Amino acid sequence: MNNQQEKLTKTIVITGASSGVGKAMAWELAQAKNRLVLAARREEALAEVVSECKQLGGLAIAIRTDMRSVEGIRQLAAKAVEFGDAIDVWINNAGVLAAGALEEIPADVNEDVIRTNLMGYIHSAHAVLPYFKEQGYGLLINNISIGGWFPTPYGAAYTASKFGIRGFSESLKGELTAFPDIHICDLYPGFLDTPGIQHAANYTGKFLKPAPPVYDPEKVAKAVVSLVECPRKRATIGAASIFLRLAYQLFPALTRTITSSVIRTYLKHAEPMPFNSGNILNPVTYGITVDGGWRKPLNSSMNKKAGFIAAGIAGFMVGAFLLGKKGVRNW
Fold this sequence. Notes:
two-stranded parallel sheet
């Protein structure tokens, strides 16, 4: 190991690092002088992130990895240990989305959503845990999103994967109680301003936009840096995430009905767009930035208003629940 490597702090694997929040995490962790192992399917995009991380003071390598491949994930773990002598942190971040009525989405697309989002996380833990146990320490961060608590109509496979990750992570925490220095941390950010929605498989027939408020991916990246320094079991990012989770826990039927109605209304008026499989089956060449361009100059105040509206709705629901209004159990 050379002098530059000796000065670096931790060896950190980031999946889904070629754009969006994964790229934002890489930037933040590079500034903290870490050794980064960046994984994704897009080699050229990864090479750009590697170069940027080196300029920010970190050391990084790119490993082309398809999260649907068990063998590819195993090789990623082995190469990470070869690069850094250990794996201190593994960040499960790679994820995909398919939008549309369930019967409109091809079966192989739905299956690959599960293979990437859920099985990719499970296979990653399966690959890295033996290293953690041999070392006697390690940190696994699962970027789940608010989708782990709040169902997304017209994104059934995505929701299944996110609910599944949450259950998987909780189960794994139980398994690891005998290993106090191995930590599992779950991230629950709200809707993020990333290229993810442009990458999504779209079988709605309409142009898609993320629902406001959308948050800066840098907020998640900074939360990751904080978790690396001081692990905890979970972190919820953005007020909207807290309100949506609370609303669904208290009034599941009502929140499902409202969310479905809002989505149908949007799709009724949105611009038409042909069906496409996005980046589900194969990687795409577009969308290699951190931001998705959804936070326009005027959107800051709009996001705050949307957050206040969400808070108001959640507050009304909580108040109704606490006051025991008639019929609240049926909501």
